[in-house]
């Protein structure tokens, strides 16, 4: 009997302690040093079709860097689903990489933690100056009025990818330019197991990118000018309802897309099940999925009316990846050299070609390699009609709370439950109330 | 008694040889006698302190702080917020508390169902495996497969099977058996509770099976023979002999299953990702979201502490009740 009691007490203590120690933490201080000048650790985000592809692309470049400088770079490619948590853990423990990739929309959130090295004029000077980078990319490097927390590395924008054959089969000669046209075209295509448009309904980041663009088109910003969440305005509600209605009432998105979060909509596109997707830099992945470059076309993301531009005709967020240095790096000079290397003209051309993205470095962007029809659309969008997500400290929470609200609304739409202005508003209210209290 | 006697004897022999013997062998011997078990426990206690109690204490401190991304790099500098985090967590009229209560109730329902099903299936299987028959060993090994598989791999496979368009579950239920008019969603919306429960029971019952099977080995065979002679049928034997004899085993089993299920994080996380559907919003995921998704680490810690208190109370009450019941039965 006694041993059973002891076992029970032991099991209880273990489980309870585990429950309570879910949150742990430490602290870190200092602004970096040069104690360890010969090595660097680099966390790269997963840009290519797989982590293996990324290693193949990056390793030769890192070897080149080692030859030039004698600094060995240890590479780790981190999947997107883990990246933010990994950065957060590294921030808390102080045990992070020296150099890392961050999603550019997180810049202001991560800047607020104080873990990233600020890029003041002096630091920018070491990598050739701020003027080397295009403005739209610099717009997503941190809060306004503060030194950037990161340097742009790859730029991307959303575009409408369409399947040429499916369009021809439906008697359509050109891609839609406005939402009305897209819905009309989508309805023509959505028959017999085929669907007009794809979506990733359970992918929070994807949801928030579209919510933001639809928001811009309705004149909603999601944050007030002093950085407070403003998710429930009439315009924001209308914007998100319009997006979810593509499935709920227009019925041009397959209900099954509500649970997609692993790029399944892109593979549906490649298989000819879905005729259109709104995507950023899909070309490399489409090739991987077995599509020939002639099978698909690229057009700007539709706008309410007219042509894409600023204001309510914004049709993309400024998407991209930034390169940041952890403040407590033990190889500050080496880290800066590495950033200089990765943003040099040659590397920019090479890396952005490999990933199908656009160089945020002006001189590299004008290279002939980035003049294909697909990249021209993306370049134009970035230059004329893309807007940066709100650069506020709570941006990453906005991504998850509103992204979750959209996911739940898609779940409603998929199950045939009505998506109404009231239900959208209720979900957005819940999202706003989850934001950290100020 | 034998172990105590040996320790006592050893303690005495050692004390006569030690320099401290001048102060009287009896006294030192008693100190040794009392001290030795504690000395032996010391490494475990130290580790327990380091691995569990220190983080727990830190968690409790954090729960009184306003810990957001502005302070996580050096959380000691985060401003104190008094009991604000707790007040927010239990204010059921406000959104944070309301969501926590919802998640708590979902978890309670889920845990009760999952533990009950795990226990029922495990016990039934163990009873069935009592008889020797051809292939028993193979079947027994098969039953333990879910318990042996890595959780992540197993749950990911379930997630594939539950997919709306290409999943095996819909293929069987809809395409082959025609039980549903349309393929159902299992990973989003209301059905997600059923999906979660299925995986949880699939994962949990082999443990119940294993423990009950071990417990059954300890029941003397002659009890059954005597009962059979007296004319007791199978059901009566189970009710009057098997279940009462398994009582102490079941006491621990149910408690451990309860704690594991209540705190389960892996299953919902792998199945649904970082934003679980409302119907399957288990408290562990909910606290994770509060902490790591909305970066309200203070509130997340407060919720963890509340969960800890709840589990302590429930467990304490459970242990008190069941052991009192047993004492009465023993008397």
TrEMBL record, chain A:
PANTHER family, alphabetized: ARABINOSE-BINDING PROTEIN-RELATED, DIACETYLCHITOBIOSE BINDING PROTEIN DASA
Gene3D superfamilies hit by this protein: Periplasmic binding protein-like II (3.40.190.10)
One protein family per Pfam: SBP_bac_1
PROSITE patterns the record matches: PROKAR_LIPOPROTEIN
Organism lineage: Bacteria, Bacillati, Actinomycetota, Actinomycetes, Kitasatosporales
Taxonomic source organism: Streptomyces yaanensis
Domain of life: Bacteria
This protein's name: ABC transporter substrate-binding protein
Signal peptide (residue range): 1-22
Keywords from the UniProt entry: Signal
From TrEMBL, chain B:
Transmembrane segments: 36-64, 104-129, 141-161, 193-216, 245-262, 301-321
Record InterPro entries: ABC_transporter_permease (IPR051393), MetI-like (IPR000515), MetI-like_sf (IPR035906)
Domain ABC transmembrane type-1 stretches: 104-318
Family to which the UniProt record says this protein belongs: Belongs to the binding-protein-dependent transport system permease family.
Gene3D superfamilies: MetI-like
Subcellular location: Cell membrane
Alphabetical list of Pfam families matching this protein: BPD_transp_1 (PF00528)
Region (Disordered): 1-26
The entry's keywords: Cell membrane, Membrane, Transmembrane, Transmembrane helix, Transport
Membrane topology: Multi-pass membrane protein
Name of the molecule in the record: Carbohydrate ABC transporter permease
Coarse class of the protein's main subcellular location: membrane
């Amino acid at each position: 009997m006694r041993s059973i009691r002891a076992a029970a007490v032991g099991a209880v203590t273990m489980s309870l302690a585990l429950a309570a120690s879910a949150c742990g933490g430490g602290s870190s201080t200092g602004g970096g040093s040069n104690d360890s000048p010969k090595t660097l650790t680099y966390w790269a985000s997963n840009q290519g079709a797989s982590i293996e592809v990324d290693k193949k692309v990056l390793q030769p470049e890192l070897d080149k860097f080692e030859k030039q400088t004698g600094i060995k770079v240890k590479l780790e490619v981190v999947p997107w689903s883990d990246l933010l948590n990994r950065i957060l853990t590294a921030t808390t423990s102080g045990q992070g990489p020296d150099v890392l990739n961050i999603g550019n929309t997180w810049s202001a959130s991560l800047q607020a933690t104080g873990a990233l090295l600020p890029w003041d004029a002096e630091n920018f000077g070491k990598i050739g100056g701020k003027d080397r980078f295009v403005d739209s990319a610099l717009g997503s490097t941190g809060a306004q009025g503060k030194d950037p927390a990161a340097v742009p590395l790859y730029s991307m924008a959303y575009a409408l990818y369409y399947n040429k054959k499916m369009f021809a089969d439906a008697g359509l000669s050109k891609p839609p330019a406005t939402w009305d046209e897209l819905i009309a075209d989508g309805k023509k295509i959505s028959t017999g197991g085929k669907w007009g448009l794809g979506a990733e309904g359970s992918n929070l980041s994807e949801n928030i990118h579209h919510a933001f663009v639809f928001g811009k088109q309705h004149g909603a910003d999601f944050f007030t000018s002093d950085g407070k969440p403003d998710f429930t305005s009439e315009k924001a509600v209308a914007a998100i309802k319009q997006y979810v209605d593509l499935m709920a009432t227009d019925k041009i998105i397959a209900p099954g897309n509500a649970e997609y979060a692993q790029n399944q909509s892109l593979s549906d596109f490649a298989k000819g099940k879905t005729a259109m997707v709104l995507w950023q830099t899909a070309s490399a992945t489409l090739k991987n999925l077995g599509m020939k470059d002639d099978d698909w076309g690229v057009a700007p993301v539709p706008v309410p009316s007219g042509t894409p531009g600023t204001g309510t005709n914004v049709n993309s967020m400024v998407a991209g990846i930034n390169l940041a240095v952890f403040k407590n790096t033990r190889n500050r000079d080496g880290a800066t050299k590495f950033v200089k290397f990765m943003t040099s003209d040659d590397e920019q051309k090479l890396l952005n070609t490999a990933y199908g993205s656009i160089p945020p470095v002006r001189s590299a962007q004008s290279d002939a390699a980035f003049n294909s029809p697909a990249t021209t659309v993306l370049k134009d969008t970035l230059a004329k009609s893309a807007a940066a997500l709100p650069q506020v400290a709570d941006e990453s929470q906005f991504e998850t709370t509103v992204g979750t609200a959209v996911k739940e609304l898609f779940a409603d739409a998929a199950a045939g439950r009505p998506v109404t202005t009231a239900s959208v508003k209720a979900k957005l209210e819940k999202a706003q109330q989850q934001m950290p209290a100020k | 008694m034998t172990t105590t006697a040996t320790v006592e004897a050893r303690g005495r022999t050692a004390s006569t040889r030690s320099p401290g013997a001048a102060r009287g062998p009896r006294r030192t011997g008693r100190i040794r006698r009392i001290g030795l078990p504690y000395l032996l426990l010391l490494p475990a206690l130290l580790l327990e302190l380091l691995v569990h109690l220190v983080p727990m204490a830190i968690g409790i401190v954090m729960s009184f702080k306003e810990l957001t991304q502005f302070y996580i790099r050096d959380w000691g500098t985060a401003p104190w917020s008094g009991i604000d985090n707790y007040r927010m967590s239990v204010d059921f009229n406000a959104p944070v508390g309301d969501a926590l209560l919802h998640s708590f109730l979902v978890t309670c329902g889920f845990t009760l169902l999952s533990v009950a099903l795990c226990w029922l299936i495990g016990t039934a299987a163990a009873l069935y495996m009592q008889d020797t028959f051809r292939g028993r060993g193979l079947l027994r090994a098969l039953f333990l497969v879910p318990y042996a598989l890595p959780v992540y791999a197993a749950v990911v496979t379930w997630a594939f099977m539950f997919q709306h368009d290409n999943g095996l579950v819909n293929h069987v239920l809809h395409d082959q058996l025609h039980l549903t008019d349309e393929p159902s969603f299992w990973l989003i919306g209301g059905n997600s509770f059923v999906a979660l429960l299925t995986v949880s029971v699939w994962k949990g019952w082999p443990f119940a099976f294993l423990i009950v099977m071990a417990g059954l080995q300890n029941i003397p065979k002659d009890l059954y023979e005597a009962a059979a002679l007296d004319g007791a049928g199978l059901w009566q034997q189970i009710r009057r002999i098997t279940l009462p004899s398994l009582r102490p085993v079941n006491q621990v089993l149910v408690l451990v299953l309860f704690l594991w299920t209540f705190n389960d994080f892996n299953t919902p996380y792998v199945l649904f990702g970082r934003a679980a559907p409302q119907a399957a919003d288990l408290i562990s995921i909910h606290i994770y979201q509060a902490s790591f998704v909305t970066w309200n680490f203070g509130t997340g810690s407060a919720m963890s502490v509340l969960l800890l208190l709840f589990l302590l109370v429930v467990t304490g009450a459970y242990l008190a009740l069941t052991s009192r019941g047993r004492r009465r039965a023993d008397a």
